[in-house]
Design a protein that fits this description.
single chain; alpha/beta; Alpha-Beta Plaits; 2 domains; two-stranded parallel ribbon; 7 strands; 58% helix
Length: 402
Amino acid sequence: MTIARGSKPRLVHWKLSLYELWSHKNHAQSFNTTRQAYLKGRFQALCVLWAAANLLWIAIDFYQLSSNMGVSEEAIFQLSVLRGCFAVSLLAIAKQVNKTNSLTKIKYALALMVIAANLFYLSTSFVLDFPFDHTHYSFSYAMLPLIHIVVLAIFPLTASESLALLGITLLTQYNVAYLGGHELDNVKKVLYLIEAITALMVAWSQLSQLHMIMKLYRHATLDPLTGVYNRRMLMTQAEQKYRKNKRANKPFSAMLIDLDRFKRVNDVHGHFAGDRVLEAFANTVQNRIRKKDIFGRFGGEEFILFLPDCSAETTEQIAQRIVDAVRDMEVDIGEGVDRLKVTVSIGLHTAMSHDDFSCLLEKADTSLLEAKSSGRDQVRIYSESLPVSTDEAKRPWLEYSS
């Protein structure tokens, strides 16, 4: 297997693809968790502030509309009831969102908020007999769709999510205009044009926020050379998943992988060649693991692969496939230079019921040392007969002890 000099691992996409901005389906689970927390905070704040504004606006409506003989007291009362119901619905949705950490449920809540806002707009249009007289205070209700569009600008959404939410408001606006039966005069043309331009600007704002968050997330969580998880994110994700599996009494395996004699590659061929080897190796591993596996660079030429729900036997088979694939790998480091061939040593351990996270890592590390001392280019599984290092400088796993 030849790895071309220009090839890149699957996770290295510093220039975000259009597909990632269109849909969340290609987003990493850890990024979805990050965006969920971001959306949740903004959504709850918006619901509370919007509900408070609606309740305060009841007094403004009463003052403005009661002085106009064209609006009956019954209509004013109905508007107050509708505003109260809308405010209560916003607070109820915000309360439900507070109980969840699911990105999908928060997006459903966003849709419910938009639907509630448009039902309020539709209901008030009937109460006020479809207000389109721009010289009358009630015309402010015809501006509600514009507000419904603008408030969405604070959320980092994908293009498909944005279109769905904006579409609800625009469809409701069309239905109100149709039911009202008014002619399309210059005032309405200007209003609809403003709404269309605002919708485009809001969609652009949402995509820009999403793009920025994704770039910051990748810079903070991925190794810039190989595109796999950096040490901090690797261990955070793995420890969380390990604890979840332990509570569910499911297997969890750790595989420590070390590139054999990597220093020699740097000394003989230069750091550029070393970088190409690291990239090629990361790409080779990623092409042979599951989506739910957690793979990252721990430091230098040492990588760790965590395999949730994976038995010791299956983990050993995966490790052997990786060793074989790397052995067959040829790395192109430039014209006129022979392709490089490298090997790896792997130590693995599947957690027992009494193992904590640091113990899992330490036993895998012990297996790796055994693989290297036995000639490299092989897989070793931990056994109780293997000696465990007592040198704390060589035991970075201690910080993860529970």
